[in-house]
Write a structure and sequence with these properties.
Helix content is 42%, strand content 16%. Helix 10 links the parallel strand 11 and strand 12. 41% of the residues are buried. Its EC number is 2.4.1.142. This is Chitobiosyldiphosphodolichol beta-mannosyltransferase. InterPro entries: ALG1-like, Glyco_trans_1, Glyco_trans_4-like_N.
Length: 465
């Protein structure tokens, strides 16, 4: 095993020596001022902020190379743009041999060499824009390529990689401490730093010596309330695969289309909500350790008991979207529940269907609890773009996004969430209720969209560097 590791390191050093003369020639040809390379050492299709960056750069006159794992389909607008080149990186799956530290070391070396090769084979860029996390080993590799090719390194701090590792291994684990040292050391070598909250900006400045600019996540233009006819079409489509969206009873007129929530009149073609329809609750997740879905399941059990006790509450359809490592675990827990008035489904939606679902829902629930306490859940940003009120679990900087009693509610545990569900869905769908009030507040608030926000905050930074 040791011999294999040495061999890989020798190959990496040899590759670097071979690339040096290529880099020198490219550096002498002058910098490509209107080209940006965006690096995501993760799934591009599940990295909306970096996709938004790519589209915004193109709209501002840049050409873009977007690198990452291509496990999920990116936005169609990105795929159809001839000024965006998507370069697929190879993901090394978990090795079946050797101790975990050896497996991790081999993975880091492989990713370093592979990313170095891919970057050096591209047309040179004025900027290399990197998503962090994951930043190990990408920060060092991107910095090295920048030195060789005259590109400036930009890091977009979404969170800290070491804090996410700490959820699995514990904060005192040697790998976690090494990752923290690495992020701090190489993060300081960047030319420009962006981050997602003011709290993170302050932490980077005070504890890392890194000056960053806060660029809040904003919803893209396609996150908006869904018209009723599109809701109906979506529910019918989802009903083909998920029983929760199917009609509970057949209409008297066989030509009438009916879902669990809506029906289209056969003669007039008008779509309306069904009387006595269930409430649609939506949550989205990456199924990782920083989201505890047992909180939601416990709250749903309490809600079910309230219904059984005769409270004036609707049935619920709870849709939890997303992919991730803990999905199978939580699907097992969901399967053990025997709800009578609640249906839970966990679909993976097509990219174009996700905003339509958010724009059709009655309430969003967010269980994201930041590993560092310094990042904000983009899923809530998208929900707000659709004027969807949210109940969100509390953590350190959530107040920068969710305003308690204005655009939603903040909770600490399952008891509090259950009480909030009871209050919000009391006499549903009452147009004068709290849920409708929150939605109206979101409609009336000035919600800046990503493109406008990007032009105001990000574009000037790239014009000045």
């Amino acid at each position: 095993m040791a011999a294999s590791s040495v061999a890989v390191l020798v190959m990496a050093a040899s590759l670097l020596l071979l690339l040096l003369p290529v880099a020198w020639k490219r550096r002498r040809r002058g910098r490509a001022d209107r080209h940006v390379i965006i690096v995501v050492l993760g799934d591009v299709g599940r990295s909306p902020r970096m996709q938004y960056h790519a589209l915004s750069f193109v709209k501002s006159g840049f050409s873009v190379t977007l690198m990452g794992f291509c496990n999920s389909r990116p936005y169609d607008e990105l795929l159809q743009n001839n000024r965006i080149e998507i370069v697929s990186l190879t993901e090394l799956r978990k090795l079946a041999v050797g101790p975990p530290i050896f497996q991790y070391g081999v993975k880091v070396v492989f990713q370093s060499v592979h990313l170095l090769w891919k970057l050096m084979c591209r047309e040179r860029a004025a900027y290399i824009c990197l998503q962090n996390p994951p930043g190990l080993p990408a920060i060092a590799v991107c910095w090295l390529v920048g030195c060789l090719c005259g590109s400036k390194l930009v890091i977009d701090w979404h969170n800290y990689g070491y804090s996410i590792m700490g959820l699995v291994h514990g904060p005192g684990h040697p790998l976690v401490l090494l990752a923290k040292w690495y992020e701090k050391l190489f993060g300081r070598l960047s030319h420009l730093n962006l981050c997602v909250t003011n709290s993170m900006r302050e932490d980077l400045a005070q504890n890392w010596g890194i000056k960053a600019v806060t660029v809040y996540d904003k919803p893209a233009s396609f996150f908006k309330e869904t018209p009723l006819d599109l809701q109906h079409r979506l529910f019918l489509k989802l009903g083909c695969a998920y029983s929760a969206f199917k009609a509970r009873s057949e209409p008297l007129d066989p030509d009438t289309e009916r879902s669990a929530f809506t029906e289209r009149d056969a003669r007039r073609g008008v779509v309306s909500h069904l009387r006595g329809r269930p409430a649609l609750l939506v949550s989205s997740t990456s199924w990782t350790e920083d989201e505890d879905f047992s909180i939601l399941l416990a709250a749903l059990e309490k809600f079910e008991q309230l219904v059984l006790d005769g409270e004036n509450l609707p049935s619920l359809v709870c849709v939890i979207t997303g992919k991730g490592p803990l999905k199978e675990y939580y699907s097992g827990l969901i399967g053990q529940k025997h709800f009578q008035h609640i249906q839970v489904c966990t679909p993976w939606l097509e990219a174009e269907d996700y905003p339509l679902l958010l724009g059709s829902a009655d309430l969003g629930v967010c269980l994201h609890k930041s590993s560092s306490g310094l990042d904000l859940p983009m899923k809530v940003v998208d929900m707000f773009g659709c004027c969807l009120p949210v109940c969100a679990v509390n953590f350190r900087c959530l107040h920068e996004l969710v305003k308690h009693e204005e655009n939603g509610l903040v909770f600490e545990d399952s008891e509090e969430l259950a009480a909030q569900l009871q209050m919000l869905f009391s006499s549903f769908p009452d147009p004068s209720g709290k849920l409708s009030q929150f939605r109206q507040n979101l409609r009336e608030s000035e919600q800046l969209r990503w493109d406008d926000s990007w032009k105001q905050t990000v574009l000037p930074l790239f014009m000045d560097t």
